[in-house]
Amino acid sequence: MNPRTxxxxxxxxxxxxxATHDTxxxxxxxxxxxxxxxxxxxxxxxxxxxxxxxxxxxxxxxxGRYHTVVKDTSDASTYTYHRFTxxxxxxxxxxxxxxxxxxxxxxxxxxxxxxLNSSGTVWAYLLDTVKxxxxxxxxxxxxxxxxxxxxxxxxxxxxxxxxxVCGSVIDSNDVIHxxxxxxxxxxxxxxxxxxxxxxxxxxxxETQFASAYTxxxxxPILDSNGNLYTTFADKDTRDGYxxxxxxxxxTWERTRYSTKECxxxxxxxxxxxxxxxxxxxxxxxxxxxxxxxxxxxxxxDPANEITVQSSSSSSMQNGVAPWQPKNYYxxxxxxxYAFEAYDETQSYYDSETIxxxxxxxxSGSGVDATVYVINDSTGSMETVTNTxxxxxxxxxxxxxxxxxxxxxxxxxxxxxxxxAISQPYVSTGDNVSFSLDSxxxxxxxxxxxxxx
Length: 452
Hints:
Blueprint: E1 9-10, E2 16-22, E3 27-33, E4 41-46, E5 59-60, E6 66-71, E7 78-87, E8 92-104, E9 113-116, E10 122-132, E11 135-147, E12 150-157, E13 163-170, E14 175-182, E15 189-197, E16 202-203, E17 207-212, E18 221-222, E19 228-233, E20 240-245, E21 252-258, E22 262-270, E23 273-280, E24 284-293, E25 296-298, E26 306-307, E27 314-317, E28 327-330, E29 334-340, E30 346-353, E31 356-361, E32 368-375, E33 381-386, E34 392-395, E35 403-411, E36 417-421, E37 426-427, E38 431-435
Parallel strand pairs: 31-38
Antiparallel strand pairs: 1-2, 2-3, 3-4, 5-6, 6-7, 7-8, 9-10, 10-11, 11-12, 13-14, 14-15, 15-16, 15-17, 18-19, 19-20, 20-21, 22-23, 23-24, 24-25, 24-26, 27-30, 28-29, 29-30, 31-34, 32-33, 32-35, 35-36, 35-37
């Protein structure tokens, strides 16, 4: 498993939970923040072999228990499973279940991921390195926890592929979707997709759907329609691309989110908008926001790209990994993210306010629009801006606790002017989406355009 598997989790108390690899002790530790990331407290050790740049993946179940799988401390060719709870009174963790060395590899373990299906069964997604005539081939295995300390290994993806940067996600039908790259001597690096059906305990066919400039591939996520998303750099230009696999027919399509030299980015979806955090130009961290409507992507690079500043972030000691702010938890108004320093000596936490985002679709010669945002708590005009040449605008507001409404003044290119106002009002994090390409002045007593 690649080192980019840390999760930043918010628990039922509203506290942030994170796990890091401590370089001074080669140990995994759990960290907790009870003040939205301003301060962090180390709560205890998660036993495992934290050598190299291995990461740790946390799965929080509905009972407040965390599940993880790590390379075993005493035998680096085996995997160990832990289930633990966080004891905030004593600032520690309580490990309730440990299955030592439940899976043995041929030539070395990495880190892995745990998934629980709809019936609560624990499944482990694992890499198994096989050495053959001096060459590493890495198999992809799935194991099921079938009883107290008992595990059953099911179908395994074998062959002569050195699967290296791997990520997975489980869907509502209990199918585990995997995206992984092939680490080989030179670029471009092949990128593969495969799925494992937990009901039949078998893998579907493994298919290469693209090639990447580097072997870093973003961990996949699913939207509400079952479409799968991942990110990686174009094999020739190294531009950042968001890839989507359609659930309807399994075809892949892509859209560019950055023209800079990118690796990969983490993805989350809030109110139908895509928020990406990742690296570009080797050492910088960036944030991008995209939307998709009727076959068209908007909000692309560079309009919504920002630089994440670790110097203003709160820190946790001795963090190691790939310096990408990939691990983050979305609220409706804030992205919380934790990431590793480039020099691999610190773990950092920071956050970004999610702006009110206005997506305007225009057509016709000379068409443009002016967008107004009014703070309904104070009655003041928050901002006035014109749509760009692509008919889109993204607006950040200062008071994230207030409600707003959005007004639009529209000229259709033929001397006709119209205006509209959003009803009901919106809060930060809401996405306001409306079309002006066939516009009729509305009845002012009705809703003028829909909110999502």
